[in-house]
């Protein structure tokens, strides 16, 4: 969801008068940590990685976002990642609403090492994958939505910021 929200933020920023050359001025501290986190998430889709790898990736995203709080949207990304890490940690996985997953027709895809069906024992259930978004045909957590908002806002705002003229 972060990648698609960043892409939408770039498109929106350009549509509303942003300058694509500003992307060359974007400096993300600890970007190699972010690249490693993205690698863990991608590997987790293809390989049966355990929960520790998922948490490592999510926490790495939070750490990079916290190191870059001056960037628009970065605090939202950090908060969303930490919310997801919290609910996964207390439940030993990301609980999902089986009714919402059925509506999204993704229930079979949730048979991995990360997701588990929500039950009466689920802690912080409101933070788990309970938000069904029909337009995306998927189920998301509050953390996912907050991450997506930050991922959209960062390039949208960055592209629309005017560069200050240099002093002579």
Write a brief structural summary:
Helix content is 54%, strand content 7%.
Write up this protein.
This protein is mainly alpha-helical and 168 residues long. The protein has one domain. It is built from 6 helices and 4 strands. The chain has helices spanning 2-15, 31-46, 51-67, 74-91, 98-103, 142-160; strands spanning 94-96, 115-117, 131-133, 138-140. The chain has a two-stranded parallel sheet with strand order 1-2. Strands 3-4 form a two-stranded antiparallel ribbon. Strand 1, helix 5 (98-103) and strand 2 (115-117) form a beta-alpha-beta unit. The termini are far apart. The relative contact order is 0.21. Mean pLDDT is 90; it is low at 164-168.
Quick one: biggest sheet? 2 strands, parallel
What is the CA–CA distance across the termini?
Answer: 43 Å
Q: How many discrete structural domains?
A: 1
Helical amount among residues, as a percent range? 40-55%
List the helices and strands and how they pair.
Blueprint: H1 2-15, H2 31-46, H3 51-67, H4 74-91, E1 94-96, H5 98-103, E2 115-117, E3 131-133, E4 138-140, H6 142-160
Helix pairs in contact: 1-6, 2-3, 3-4, 4-6
């Amino acid at each position: 969801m972060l990648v698609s929200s960043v892409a939408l933020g770039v498109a929106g920023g350009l549509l509303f008068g942003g300058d694509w050359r500003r992307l060359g001025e974007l400096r993300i501290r600890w970007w190699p940590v972010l690249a490693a986190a993205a690698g863990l998430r991608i590997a987790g889709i293809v390989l049966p990685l355990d929960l520790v790898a998922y948490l490592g990736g999510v926490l790495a995203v939070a750490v990079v976002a916290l190191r870059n709080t001056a960037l628009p949207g970065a605090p939202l990304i950090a908060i969303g990642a930490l919310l997801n890490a919290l609910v996964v940690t207390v439940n030993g996985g990301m609980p999902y609403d089986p009714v919402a997953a059925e509506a999204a027709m993704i229930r079979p895809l949730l048979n991995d090492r990360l997701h588990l069906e929500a039950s009466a024992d689920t802690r912080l259930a409101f933070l788990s994958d309970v938000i069904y978004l029909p337009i995306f045909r998927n189920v998301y957590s509050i953390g996912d939505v907050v991450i997506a908002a930050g991922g959209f806002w960062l390039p949208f705002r960055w592209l629309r910021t005017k560069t200050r003229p240099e002093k002579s």
